[in-house]
């Protein structure tokens, strides 16, 4: 019996400013149009969890995810998702979110006037380092509006997005992750009324200690940046695969989705990619 696969797509920025992990509004619209024209349905995390548990989902299903919570998600991604009737998941870094009034959103992908200034990914990181979070991140008012509109749902991406595994002390690393998850859940519960069981790892890093810590804080669905696997009924919810969407056309993104869902091609493709990555890592090791 062929098991259905739900691809999980990973975005960060939808922005006219080119840079890392950025898709232009024009390409994002083309990707949504491709999905819409072919009858794809975007799932909620509840529907996706049901899929992993073995319950049926529409044949052409995807989960659209965004990481961090940048202002451009409000300005450009929100109106386009609403236009095409898709919903998405946003994993927010709760310590980067502030208060304030709603800002303007784009009426068309090409609109630039009358909108808040959008920075490149590199400039966003610099602004965050300087404590200028509000210049580049969502506000709680915008998050509540997006949630009420049914376009985005919000989940934890930790509180500060810090790679604590780079700390020299393993006990300190684990203690800091405990604090991150506790603070993140508290912020979500205070501002949105609840914190869910879904967590996305900051910068993709996780280990067995982190998984155990996440479970003690009530997280049951853990999202990675690992691209080469299939999310099928019975798959491990503690290791959810996602692939990054490039700044490319809908047709190109569609080919990647078709590879991910093909019962014959996907295992071969994923196996080759994992083997290639392992060889590269082996060659670079001393």
Please give a structural write-up:
This protein is an alpha/beta fold and 286 residues long. It has one domain: TIM Barrel (Alpha-Beta Barrel). The strands form three sheets. Strands 1, 4, 5, 6, 7 and 10 form a six-stranded parallel β-sheet that branches. It is globular and about 50 Å long. It starts with 7 loop residues before the first strand and ends with a helix. 37% of the residues are buried.
Gyration radius from CA atoms, angstroms: 19 Å
Count of domain modules: 1
Count of helical segments? Answer: 9
CATH homologous superfamily grouping: Glycoside hydrolase/deacetylase
CATH architecture: Alpha-Beta Barrel
CATH fold assignment: TIM Barrel
Main sheet attributes: strand count, strand direction, barrel closure? 6 strands, parallel
CATH class: Alpha Beta
Order of helices and strands: EEEHEHEHEHHEHEHEEHH
Structural class: alpha/beta
Give the total of beta strands: 10
Shape: globular
Secondary structure blueprint with pairings:
Elements: E1 8-11, E2 13-14, E3 22-23, H1 25-37, E4 41-42, H2 45-52, E5 61-68, H3 71-84, E6 88-92, H4 121-129, H5 140-148, E7 152-156, H6 170-192, E8 198-200, H7 208-216, E9 221-223, E10 243-244, H8 250-261, H9 265-284
Parallel strand pairs: 1-5, 1-10, 2-3, 4-5, 5-6, 6-7, 8-9
